[in-house]
Amino acid sequence: MRTSFKRAAVALMMAPMALGAFPAMAEETAAAKSSEDVYEQLDLLMRVFQRVRSEYVDEVDDKEVIEAAIQGMLRSLDPHSTYLNPEVFQQVRVQTEGEYGGLGLEVQMDNGLVKVVSPIDDTPAQKAGIKGGDYITHIDGTSVIGKTLTESVKEMRGPVGSMIKITVVREGEEGSHDYDIMRDKILVRSVRHRVEDETIGYLRITTFNMQTGDGVENSIKELKAQLGDKMDGLIIDLRNNPGGLLNEAIRVSDDFLDRGEIVSTRGRRRQNNNRWYATAGDMLDGMPIVVLVNAYSASASEIVAGALQDHRRAVLVGDQTFGKGTVQSEIRLGRNGDQALRLTTARYYTPSGRSIQERGIEPDLYVFNDGHRPNLRRESDLNNSIHNEQSTVDRTGEEEDEDPKLNPISATPEPAEGEAATPPVDRQLKYAIKLLKDMSALPTPQVAEARPHDEQG
Q: Rounded CA gap, 221 and 223, in Å?
């Protein structure tokens, strides 16, 4: 009896433990089955690869075939996830870091030759005496004829301190000129500035690389020093800016905001959930700003535009932006870290909580340079674009809400006296100048009220 009692007691104690173990066991079984399926698929991939190697009509390059398989896997996810092989990775580093070893030339292709648009100030090319309008015919003794501009530019770049011979011909002079030049570190200019209509600062940002924040801040200081009290406002031109580094977009936004959130990101992993806030100090002390945007303003450009719009710090003029509202993380690969996986890891949101993925940022004032809205491809037109979870659009149906009225503005100000009213006319820029002039004429408290904005409940 005593033995039977002990057995029964053990059974009773074990029963709840066993019942509690069933879900865990089920989860482990499901995970094991999932892993088994993955290994079966990887085995299938290897068998296909072996068949291609051994039986394809022509001999294949193993590295190229494997790279194509990796790219195919990533392209099935979204348009922006990709594999960067060592060559592409190096090009991307130049774009993001904003510097490279080279000569400092802005060039274009002209009748099969490389034409110098202009040497960049204080670079080896300028110091050597190369001039705008020169034609580069040979690089290190090899003709550029038959080569693409990209190939020629690649040959001109190289390690800092290395030598290169450039042969040029100059209009109006006989013969050619040889220049032996030592490559140096060249900074990629992503920011340019000038004065418009005597009192308006104009800031053009072409990309967001590691030099952009410094470029913007230096440009603002120079414009303020040049214009002083005459400065009526600032135009920030983000048209055709494809984006770039998130932290640089945050820094540029912070330059014109005194407080509040700039942008937030949310992803599958907790480490991708972040919020960034403005620090005290507005470089323009509340001076009116107009931001120019178009269908090719994307990613980091949309972060800046969205932040300034949500805080009613700027008026957006132009066309709806591209709609790339996702963040890509760069994951180094390879023994030397000379290649990388660029993987979409989060969505980003404007201060008001808007996701602009597939939707873009709508300007406060639609202005089209040719008088009507161009039909251009945007993020939503790309294959496998990530869906906007806030959207009321069913991908197989129609949008539930009515489309907002665009009310396009044919912005054609009367030309100033002596100014030729001939195309091409940058209507968006001219409208921005006129708008800032009008806003500067208002008393300061009325400037904010004059900025167009959506009603919020």
A: 6
Are residues 369 and 427 in contact, defined by beta-carbon separation less than 8 angstroms?
Answer: yes
Question: Active-site residue 355, yes or no?
Answer: no
6 catalytically annotated: no
Q: Which two tokens stand for residue 3?
A: 């033995």
Q: What is the pTM of this model?
A: 0.75
Location of structure tokens 């959207």: 391
Catalytic residue among 232, 237, 310, 364: 310
Which structural domains are found in the chain, ordered by start? 99-187 (2.30.42.10), 191-450 (3.90.226.10)
- Pick the catalytic residue from 324, 364, 385, 430: 324
**Which among 84, 183, 173 is positioned nearest to 135, based on CA atoms?**
173
Mean pLDDT of the 320-325 span: 93
Among 190, 219, 297, 299, the active-site one is: 299
User: Distance between CA atoms of 190 and 194, rounded to whole angstroms?
Assistant: 14
- Whether 310 is catalytic is yes
Q: Does pLDDT of 153 surpass 50?
A: yes
Evaluate whether 359 touches 348 at the Cβ level (below 8 Å). no
